[in-house]
Amino acid sequence: MRWFGININSHISLARIGLVGFSFVVGSMATMSFTNKPDDGQLISDSTISDKNGFKSLFASNTFDATKPYATQLNPRAVSFVQEYIRKQGKELERMKSWGKPYFDLYDNVLSLYGVPKEMKYLSVIESHLSSGLVSWAGAVGPWQLMDYEARRFGLRTGGAGDDRMDYYKSTHVAAKLMKELYTEFGDWLLVVAAYNGGAGRVRQAIKRSGSRDFWELQYNLPEETRNHVKKFIGTHYVFEGSGGWTTLTASETEAQKQLFAKPQEAVLTDLDLENTATTEISGRYNSVIVANGLAMEINQFNKWNPGFDKTLAEGKKYPLRLQKDKVAVFHARKNNFLMESVRALLDGNTSSPAK
């Protein structure tokens, strides 16, 4: 398989599509397969999800909301597929958490060497069910289902009993390099999964035809097996992690979340808080604990009124400090002392002394 040439896309697609139907046998395990694959149809009732396994709560949100933590969300266009996927495969994947741990530990160590998120290890789950001996009809081999020409491109031996693609350690290094190459091109982990399955050329064509780099917009310009492969990856992530994550978001969703996290939190204030407090704009490396101590305030109360205080000031930005009205004058009378003490604590590496 070549990721970079459109002229062999058909071969790439057949190679990958031939091995990703999630139909395989590992040891004495029963064959697992998807026959009638759900796609983006009507939402399946939450009653189809096992409460015992804790899956029901994963699907409470039907829209992607940039104001909510990414870990609680599932893109609405993936909900029905992921629900059905977990209903069918969830129990087997739950068992894999135990017997697959040695393989996942190895994956974590290798992927981190290349700056690839550890959660990308779940791509091996949907490629091979962690089976080292799996061979697809198209000739992809091993836990990462590598084609011979890609394996040879990275120096692996192929063919026979000494096929390096069956070696977990060696094949994971190659898979990590491939994923890193794909991420360098697409900058989106969902597109990396799609390209790993159907080929980078297929993804390029889908981007061109749809005019979008968003997987949820371009997905119908990809083969059904490839777009379902991405949703299987998301579903597997939910089973193992109990939530979504950065690798289950598009690049635009990721950026929205990062911008949200970069913004200072807003204080949650009652009418009584607003009546009894006032703000004064400050700048400088003040430390919240030192200021709270100096004003005889409980640190929890200080943080409630002034979320993100230390982080914002550390970034060189101004901050609207909120205090009880009678303490504003006290702060200004002593602010130079507070600042000197804060800077001294910073230099001494002691910036988190408990409030008195």
From TrEMBL:
<comment type="similarity">
    <text>Belongs to the transglycosylase Slt family.</text>
</comment>
<keyword id="KW-0812">Transmembrane</keyword>
<keyword id="KW-0472">Membrane</keyword>
<feature type="domain" description="Transglycosylase SLT">
    <location>
        <begin position="117"/>
        <end position="218"/>
    </location>
</feature>
<keyword id="KW-1133">Transmembrane helix</keyword>
<dbReference type="InterPro" id="IPR008258">
    <property type="entry name" value="Transglycosylase_SLT_dom_1"/>
</dbReference>
<dbReference type="InterPro" id="IPR023346">
    <property type="entry name" value="Lysozyme-like_dom_sf"/>
</dbReference>
<dbReference type="Pfam" id="PF01464">
    <property type="entry name" value="SLT"/>
</dbReference>
<protein>
    <submittedName>
        <fullName>Lytic transglycosylase domain-containing protein</fullName>
    </submittedName>
</protein>
<feature type="transmembrane region" description="Helical">
    <location>
        <begin position="12"/>
        <end position="34"/>
    </location>
</feature>
